[in-house]
């Protein structure tokens, strides 16, 4: 129901300033560093004491560099006209430009110099950018898409990656990132699944915390502020309160309480009929009062005005701005449409200056924490800059190698020494466009700005290049595309308000300079070869925000192409690129091997080639369930897979070139709810002849039929590297608080019998034990604060 049909503007203001008391009271996370300190308060309060309303409003909006540039250069005249009172943020400042690192830094310095010398308050702006796969700017290291990083199950590696991103961003003068994305993704049909860490709350929380800690470092003055998004439940149709609290809020809560995140972005979604960006239940009650978040809330781009133009929940931009501000959104991004109208909202009684001051204080406090309000703030790094140094490329290679999942192997991999001729076919065999996930620099500038990117800056390694490097002259590689990605164009965009056809432009960029695919030649060289490597799947224009596909089969004619390759009788190794699971059920049994490569980033070609030839033993495990059909029903392994609807591959699944034996499980027979931790230990042994890394997984399941716990839940994991014949002991320390449930608006731990399951996936469970969690039901008055097991 449209609220505006039943309530007056005055009542609308009151509705937007209140919230529903459905939660558990304010949570205070003892391990959080407070957003406000006496030092920042003193600096910020002194500034605010002399601010005019125009200057206050300028600090709670964002803008784009294009408005202060002319002929590719900063224009002080345009700046005087566009931001006479300063500005809060410059939005996605680098992803639409083709500048060298030094040119980008100097542009940022020019803008900041203007703000610090030509405006009365002399306040620098926050320059923010996307950082999900590295700093989204020309020449910067491009890591695998986040869905691939989810399959690494490697928090330490993710922290290293984001720490390298921080160095690049700070060198350019950027201090703030609109990453990571923490949405739980439970259907391959969602076009933004690729940005997520998959379907599981525990895994997403562990990896999200690692991302935030690596990006922010130990000090905001030298780190980059992370923005956790999208709060909360974006990309799902789930409306169950218990699951919302236990699952969808968990990654955000962990990143705030453990990771120290001080910036949150609400989703474009709707909760209880009200857009999240205007929803005080979510942003005030859940986020601030219950989770205890004390930082900055920034809107997603155009989300505030969408309350009016999209959701039709406000009669004007002015009212939309009042609703968002009252709900708790501090900054309107990316361009000021609603917040500049807040003075009018004050006159109409829809908002007070107190709410504006609160948002301004948070905006300025973030700037103070980042060092931007210091007497002589450090803007960028002097000297020549390299955004893709060798140590970064090594991280990109390690990330790609660990993200790749071997889904099937009949023994053909690694490739045998007697193979002399390979047919390398498919639309993704020799292109860079299958390496790049959404919100990489390359994707952003080509999709959003219809501008060609330079595949040499940074150097993007195709599969063909990787194989040629790894195999040398000993093996002949015959290459032919064989088919296009998708013809006709198999995706659509919602271009309301954009008025262009970016997908068609992007497709032209992806095929620029390529010959027409030759199906006959692809079949011919396949018949002549010892083995066929078919590189198929998606690319930039088939997956990502704003790009909607009709289904999740291999796009266009690719499925039929694979069937023609299989008909040759030669072994087919299927290498699938993309941002989601794509159906292989039609021919899975006929393929010799299937490799899920995702969007593997700049070193993708080298990493895939090393796995195919055996230089690297694959270790990736699925962070999503792989479906067998095109059903749009959400999949959650935690509810169990029914006998008549088994997945193609389950959550946690992934093959290796060696074998592992699990043994000697020891679980405490009982523990009290009040205990700090209880211990689970077992042995893992490499029984094969290759060094490998096994991702051991600890799940729990309720033993009692009346339990309200989910049927199975991941509660621990560890990467264990083992040489041939080597055995190691793995120890997990589990907290009873990891069994906390949200029931009747309270966090509680119930006494019950719990089955402990150790395995190689959510269905390949090798060891089973049981613990009696006893005592009296415990209510967590301050909410949950322990989320993870401890590895020993």
UniProtKB/TrEMBL annotation:
Record keywords, A-Z: Carbohydrate metabolism, Glycosidase, Hydrolase, Signal
Single Gene Ontology MF annotation: hydrolase activity, hydrolyzing O-glycosyl compounds
Gene3D superfamilies cross-referenced by the UniProt entry: Glycoside hydrolase family 3 C-terminal domain, Glycoside hydrolase, family 3, N-terminal domain, Immunoglobulins
GO terms classed as biological process: carbohydrate metabolic process
Signal peptide (from-to): 1-29
Fibronectin type III-like domain boundaries: 694-762
SUPFAM superfamilies found in the cross-reference section: (Trans)glycosidases, Beta-D-glucan exohydrolase, C-terminal domain
Similarity comment text for this entry: Belongs to the glycosyl hydrolase 3 family.
Name of the featured protein: Beta-glucosidase
Native organism taxonomy: Bacteria, Pseudomonadati, Bacteroidota, Flavobacteriia, Flavobacteriales
């Amino acid at each position: 129901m449209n609220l505006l049909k039943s309530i007056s503007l005055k009542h609308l203001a009151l509705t937007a300033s209140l919230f529903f008391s459905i939660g558990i009271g304010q949570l205070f996370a003892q391990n959080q560093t407070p957003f406000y300190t006496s030092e920042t308060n003193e600096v910020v309060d002194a500034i605010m004491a002399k601010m005019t309303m125009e200057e206050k409003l300028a600090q709670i909006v964002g803008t784009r560099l294009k408005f202060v540039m002319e002929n590719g250069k900063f224009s002080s005249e345009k700046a005087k006209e566009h931001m006479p009172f300063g500005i809060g943020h410059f939005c996605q400042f680098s992803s639409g430009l083709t500048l060298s690192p030094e040119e980008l830094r100097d542009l940022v310095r020019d803008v900041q110099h203007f703000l610090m010398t030509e405006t009365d308050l002399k306040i620098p702006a926050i320059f923010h950018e996307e950082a999900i796969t590295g700093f989204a700017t020309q020449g910067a290291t491009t890591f695998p898409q986040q869905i691939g990083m989810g399959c690494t199950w490697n928090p330490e590696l993710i922290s290293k990656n984001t720490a390298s991103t921080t160095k690049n961003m700070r060198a350019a003068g950027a201090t703030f990132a609109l990453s990571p994305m923490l949405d739980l993704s439970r259907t391959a049909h969602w076009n933004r699944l690729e940005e997520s860490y998959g379907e599981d709350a525990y895994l997403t929380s562990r990896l999200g915390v690692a991302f935030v800690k690596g990006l922010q470092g130990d000090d905001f003055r030298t780190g980059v502020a992370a923005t956790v998004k999208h709060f909360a439940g974006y990309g799902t149709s789930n409306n169950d309160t218990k699951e919302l609290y236990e699952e969808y809020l968990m990654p955000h809560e962990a990143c705030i309480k453990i990771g120290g995140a001080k910036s949150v972005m609400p989703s474009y979604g709707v909760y209880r009929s009200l857009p999240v960006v205007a929803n005080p239940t979510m942003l005030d009650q859940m986020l601030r009062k219950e989770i205890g978040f004390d930082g900055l809330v920034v809107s997603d781009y155009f989300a505030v005005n969408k309350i009016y133009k999209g959701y039709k929940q406000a009669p004007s931009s002015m009212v939309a701005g009042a609703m968002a501000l009252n709900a708790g959104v501090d900054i309107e991004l990316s361009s000021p449409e609603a917040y500049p109208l807040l003075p009018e909202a004050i006159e109409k009684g829809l908002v007070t200056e107190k709410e504006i001051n609160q948002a301004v204080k948070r905006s300025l406090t973030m700037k103070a924490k980042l060092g931007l309000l210091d007497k002589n703030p450090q803007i960028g790094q002097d000297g020549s800059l390299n955004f893709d140094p060798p140590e970064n490329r090594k991280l990109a290679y390690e990330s790609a190698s660990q993200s790749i999942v071997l889904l099937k192997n009949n023994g053909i991999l690694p490739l045998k020494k007697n193979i002399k001729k390979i047919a390398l076919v498919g639309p993704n065999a020799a292109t860079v466009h299958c390496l790049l996930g959404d919100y990489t620099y390359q994707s952003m500038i080509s999709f959003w700005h219809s501008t060609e990117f330079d595949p040499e800056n940074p150097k993007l390694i195709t599969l063909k290049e990787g194989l040629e490097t790894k195999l040398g002259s000993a093996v002949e590689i015959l290459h032919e595309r064989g088919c296009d990605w998708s013809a006709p164009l198999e995706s659509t965009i919602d271009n309301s308000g954009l008025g262009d056809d970016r997908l068609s432009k992007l497709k032209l960029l992806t095929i620029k300079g390529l010959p027409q695919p030759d199906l006959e030649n692809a079949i011919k060289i396949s018949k002549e070869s010892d083995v066929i490597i078919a590189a198929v799947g998606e690319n930039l224009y088939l997956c990502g925000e704003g790009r909607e596909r009709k289904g999740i089969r291999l796009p266009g004619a690719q499925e039929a192409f694979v069937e023609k390759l299989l008909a040759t009788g030669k072994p087919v190794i299927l290498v699938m690129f993309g941002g989601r699971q794509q159906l292989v059920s039609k021919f899975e049994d006929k393929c010799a091997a299937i490799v899920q490569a995702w969007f593997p980033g700049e070193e993708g070609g080298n990493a895939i080639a090393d796995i195919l030839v055996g230089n690297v033993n694959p270790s990736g495990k699925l962070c999503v369930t792989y479906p067998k059909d095109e059903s749009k029903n959400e999949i959650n392994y935690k509810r169990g897979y029914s006998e008549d609807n088994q997945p193609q591959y389950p959550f946690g699944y992934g093959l290796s070139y060696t074998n592992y034996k699990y043994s000697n499980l020891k679980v405490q027979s009982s523990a009290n709810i009040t205990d700090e931790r209880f211990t689970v230990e077992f042995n893992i042994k490499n029984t094969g002849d290759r060094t490998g890394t096994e991702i051991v997984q600890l799940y729990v399941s309720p033993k009692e039929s009346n339990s309200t716990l989910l049927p199975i839940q991941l509660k621990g994991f560890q990467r264990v590297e083992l040489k041939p014949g080597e055995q190691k002991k793995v120890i997990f320390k589990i907290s009873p608080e990891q069994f906390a449930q949200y029931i009747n608006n309270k966090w509680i731990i119930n006494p019950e019998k719990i089955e402990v399951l150790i395995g190689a996936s959510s269905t390949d469970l090798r060891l089973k034990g049981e613990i009696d969690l006893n005592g009296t039901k415990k209510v967590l008055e301050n909410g949950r604060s322990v989320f993870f097991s401890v590895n020993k």
